[in-house]
Amino acid sequence: MPAVVYAFLSTLGALFRSQLSLRIENVALRHQLAMYQRTVKRPSIRPADRILWCWLSRRWARWREVLVFARPDTVIAWQRKRFRDHWTRMGRAGKPGRPLISEEIRELIRKVSDANPLWGTPRIVGELGKLGIKVAKSTVDKYRVRSRKTPSPTWKAFLKNHVNDLVSIGTFR
Predict the structure, then answer these.
(1) Per-residue pLDDT of the chain (173 residues; tens, 9 = 90+)
(2) How far is CA 168 from the centre of its chain?
């Protein structure tokens, strides 16, 4: 008896709903019926089924009421997974940044910077440009060899060497 009352009330409610809403509900219910007919015990959910229900959940307000084969939280989890997977694929589509330079050019940058420790990155870029090799300043900066010893004395060494002179200047003033 309750099933008959429910059917009667839903038919009565259908009189006041729009045609589009009824058609969408019809598609949703037919889709679920088709899913149950193509399986024996448990409905097998294909990617196309997930996409349809994700789309319905975005476009139709009453999608939760007619969904039978899965929980609404599951459909929302599918949406989130599709969103993550989409942006993961987009991130991997192209390799970001500049293309790698050949090993010969990297070795040449190292040799030039090792042979000329006083040359900076702009000078090395200029010298490579004279040879017809076009590389960015950041690329040369990345691969050039930096000497561990500074080419000129540090302030600490300067003060250590001239401490007596500095003290004598301060006392005769």
Answers:
(1) 566 666 666 666 666 667 777 788 878 878 877 777 777 777 778 888 888 888 888 888 888 888 877 888 888 898 899 889 888 888 776 766 777 889 999 999 999 998 988 888 999 999 999 999 999 999 999 998 887 766 677 888 888 888 877 766 655 55
(2) 64
Q: Where are the beta strands (DSSP E) in the chain?
A: none
Element (H, E) at 171: helix 163-171
| Helical segments of the chain, H only | 2-14, 19-37, 47-59, 63-66, 72-93, 103-115, 121-130, 137-143, 155-161, 163-171
Report the distance separating Cα 8 and Cα 90, nearest Å: 50
Q: How far apart are CA 123 and CA 133, in angstroms?
A: 13
Handedness of CA 110, 114, 134, 141 (dihedral sign): positive
d(CA 27, CA 36): 14
Rounded to an integer, what distance in angstroms lies between the CA atom of residue 153 and that of residue 158?
7
167, 136 contact by CB (below 8 A)? no
Length of the chain: 173
Taking the C-alpha atoms of residue 83 and residue 79, their distance in angstroms, rounded to an integer, is 6
